[in-house]
Amino acid sequence: HVQLVESGGGLVQPGGSLRLSCAASGFSVSDFQMTWARQAPGKDLRWVSSIEKDGEETYIIEFAKGRFFISRDIATNTLYLQMDRLTTNDTALYYCTRGSAYSVYRGQGTQVTVS
Fold first, then answer.
1. Distance between CA 36 and CA 106 in Å, rounded?
2. Could you tell me which of 26, 37, 27, 20 has the C-alpha nearest to residue 79?
């Protein structure tokens, strides 16, 4: 069955970096668009970045351009989100999804706290 397990979150100071990972099983990340989304305390889920199944096309939300980078490793079936120059506004629970940000296929999330 489809399973997505995020990791890599934590507490980081402003200006720091984190790399989030999402281990996928039950399907191949090369067969679907994959997405990172986040939900800050008291706010709605928000799309952050996606990578198309061809691995070539990537999309990133405006506020993260130049700071966040999405990638994947087909050999390990893992999705990544490299996050640099983090700010307090990036504090949120980060999810990876298969498909859109609102897909039913979503992991449990990994908490990122910038403070």
1. 10
2. 20
What whole-number distance in Å separates Cα of residue 4 and Cα of residue 96?
7
Cα–Cα distances in angstroms (integers) from residue 17 to residues 10, 56, 111, in the given order: 10, 24, 14
Beta partners for residue 39, in sequence order: 45, 93
Give burial (CB, 10 Å; 0-12/13-18/19+) of 86.
buried
- Digit-by-digit pLDDT tens for the chain (115 residues) are 999 999 999 999 999 999 999 999 999 999 999 999 999 999 999 999 999 999 899 999 999 999 999 999 999 999 999 999 999 999 999 999 999 999 999 999 999 999 9
Start-end of H helices in the chain? none
